[in-house]
Amino acid sequence: MTVSDRLNGDLPLRDADSVAADIAPDATVLTSGFGSVGYPKLVPLALAADDRDLALTLVSSGNVGDEIDVELVESGAIARRFTYQSSEVARAATNRRDIAFSDRNASSMGDDVQYRGVVDPDVCVVEAVAVGPDWFVPSTSLGQVPAFVEAADELVVEVNAAQPLELQALHDIYRPDAPPNRDPVPLTDPGERIGSTRVEFDPEKLTAVVESDRPDDTYTFRDPTEDDLAIAENLGDFLTRELERSPVFEDAIHLQFGVGSLGNALMGELKELDFGGRDVVYFGELIQDGLFDMLDEGRLEAASATSLALTTEGQERLFDDVERYAEDIVLRPADVSNHPGLIDQFGVVGVNSAIEFDIYGNVNSTHVNGSRMINGVGGSADFNRNSLVSVCALPSTIKDGEISRVVPMAFHVDHTEHDIDVFVTEQGVADVRGLSPVERAERIIENCAHPAFVDDLRDYLADVKTQDAHIPMDVERAANWQ
Fold it and tell me: For the chain, which domains are there?
């Protein structure tokens, strides 16, 4: 199938260079893209090659590929950025403050943009598999695209022939009403469909359609490590106990996993877990390769997300049989996939990773040493705050065991002690629900810290416990601990 087969009606066909030349040097540009897939390629590359002095504000609802996060960043064209960046180049520019980077929760970015909370958008550039005068079919991710399209004055659609037209069968595009007249999202089951398969827009907005055949810059997941497998086993043991303990999981369990190699490994290992005949449903923001084995074996009732964050092999697996997978997979806008009310409604068990957590249960997902940004908070706060059971899972050390990821005090906190219920490392599980701060600290140290650091953490806690304080601490000692 050629790009021309995907074009419907009288459309403003243009090349990427002319589109880029018409974008103002200081424009606010919204783009599609989430989970490193479904983002526009050719217009960002044309902007990167533009010889004007550009100072763009760029807004994406999730991570994007190298065309944006390397080429466009290296060109110096981006002055301000929302909300998640995923390359070494973008990370370095953020930490040098060459780019003014503002991190936001994935669930709220659509409202932030549409109702002018953070930017006044000029143009929205999206990737699609088909387009008409007043509609387009998104490709491999949705993110906050429907809200971005509504918010922008102008719309540019890249129609990508490298993505199968059959992706249309995956999409379920529902738009929440504007506050204060916003009704609850009418979704009663994650596998249910309540919207359209395409994004509709005011035809006056469509300024250009660009033909493309450039594939996604897909994910690369490392092979599971021994620590990953041990974490998966510990998580499985916890889930087994939780299923037996809590009556809410009598019939079904709804799961979510964060993006990355560990999350992908945990998804893959779940296929070995005995769920006792319960329905297993995935309700999260990202579908990764690890879920496909469960889908293929019929062990997953449905998988609802906003992005297909797959490897090249995972994409090929999907593209070869899209219509079959569409029976079980639903892609939704991020203001639905990450909706706090739906996460609560389905009683999700959310499993997310982090950079580190401290002995009192505070979690740092974004900054090394409390100061250097890594990627961004993404949707982790949406699920950590609103899941029925929130789990933080990560190896207990990094740098070949030289640095503990269980620390006396987190100097940057994305998720507070009130957000996380359970901590899992390769060492064990610390269920800290209902515990006081010092009790949490004792359990986390004994169950989750690496043996090489346990004695130092015990000594720290023993010393600060002499204070008359609900959460005893020694800030200077904690800062110098490693």
Answer: 3-212 (3.40.1080.10), 226-479 (3.40.1080.10)
